[in-house]
Design brief:
The chain is of the alpha+beta class and 224 residues long. Helix content is 49%, strand content 24%. Strand 7 and strand 8 form a beta hairpin.
Length: 224
């Protein structure tokens, strides 16, 4: 549960999905009510996605039953599909596929992940905007006055003061504001610690050094 909570802070929904899949040794997928895949983990998530979409379609025909949990089995294994909701708001469905049915402890872990994902997806736009502004302030402080950097703020965004990082600079981004949003969305999909800030007409991205090149290349491709 602690690892899942840390994953939420580090990388949002994709990081929670990855941590859950690793903990359960299974495949995980999250789809929204429009059947778009928000995050997935595992080498073969196709069945999990299909089951999540089937449950979503069935629930859409019965509005009173939109919040539910369902267990299915097929040739690929056992699948647990859980609705992701808060109050009356439905954010999507999470499907977990494993070789064997989930024991009680794993079902508890799944419920914890669903709660974290529902909180993350339910973040008001103002909260997301404030978090992004804080991320930019931390990034600029790291560049301009690293001696003033608060270690707690670094840890909030998933970094330790002793981590080795690399900086990628994305150039020729015009107009800048939509580009910043696209870069942020692409980085969130990676589910890794990152810091970003606009520097003039460019966007600078701080990444873990060991994966910086591959991640920066993927982000560049997505926002090209």
């Amino acid at each position: 549960q602690e690892r899942l909570a840390r994953a939420t802070l580090r990388g949002g929904v994709p990081a929670v999905v990855t941590a859950l899949g690793q903990a359960l040794a299974g495949v995980v997928a999250v789809v929204d009510p429009d059947d778009r895949v928000l995050a997935e983990y595992g080498s073969d998530t196709g069945r999990a996605i299909r089951h999540a979409r089937a449950v979503s379609e069935s629930a859409s025909r019965s509005p009173r039953r939109r919040q539910l949990s369902k267990v299915l089995a097929d040739d690929g294994g056992h699948y647990t599909v859980q609705s992701i909701a808060a109050a009356q708001d439905l954010y999507g469905y999470l499907a977990v596929g494993t070789a064997e049915p989930l024991p009680p402890a794993d079902r508890l872990l799944l419920a914890h992940a669903v709660s974290l994902i529902s909180i993350e997806l339910g973040k008001p736009a103002k909260v997301q905007s404030a978090e992004q502004r804080l991320r930019a302030v931390v990034t600029r402080t790291l560049f301009d006055a690293p001696e003033r950097m608060d270690a707690g703020l670094l840890r909030y965004f998933g970094f330790e003061p002793t981590d080795t990082v690399a900086v990628a600079v994305l150039t020729d981004l015009d107009p800048l504001l939509p580009a910043e949003r696209q870069v942020g969305a692409a980085l969130a999909a990676e589910g890794i610690p990152h810091l970003t800030a606009s520097i003039g007409a460019d966007v600078a991205v701080v990444l873990p050094a060991d994966r910086a090149r591959e991640i920066a290349t993927r982000v560049q491709d997505r926002v090209r």
